[in-house]
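Sharing in case it's useful to others searching the archive later.

Someone asked me privately for the predicted structure of Probable RNA 2'-phosphotransferase, so I'm posting the question and my answer publicly. Question first, with the sequence:
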Amino acid sequence: MNPQQLKSISKRLSYILRHHPDSVGLTLAPGGWVGVDDLLTALKSNGKSVTRGTLDQVVFDNDKQRFEFSADGTQIRARQGHSAEVDLQYEAATPPDMLFHGTATRFLESIFTEGLIKGNRHHVHLSTNHETMIQVGSRHGKPVVLEVNARQMVADGHTFFVTGNAVWLTDHVPPQYLRELAPSSTV
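And my answer, the predicted structure tokens:
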């Protein structure tokens, strides 16, 4: 299967496993899990037949590791980014002192007024990888990377979670914990 076909399947999986499992007749179980066989059957019933081998390829080769299988390989879920109502069952974790968030410069005024908000998703997504955040910001316009003082947020009572693909999650980042990195830091 060519990269474009795999990308198309990955986008379809994101839509189903993050946002609209009901679009193919599925319901997310606690943790965001669905049975692999149920997913493959639902896809086939909705005109998008995918083999288990192709599903494995999409999960294991995804550059951002958006999906994961259960330990026994019988269930699958999206690791983060949900707008569908689900308890992902992540446990609180202590983040590194500083985390990063990529965005576009056009959003800075709002961010420095309201902070980073989760919008219709469950959490704000943060990373330890500065370079990845430049790429994330580039998707929305001229990129900028914000530094998040996670150490102070924890000291002030904010909770963080970490996913299996090392994305750090929190409910909100108030503006006082944010600092724009110099443009030379985002090149």
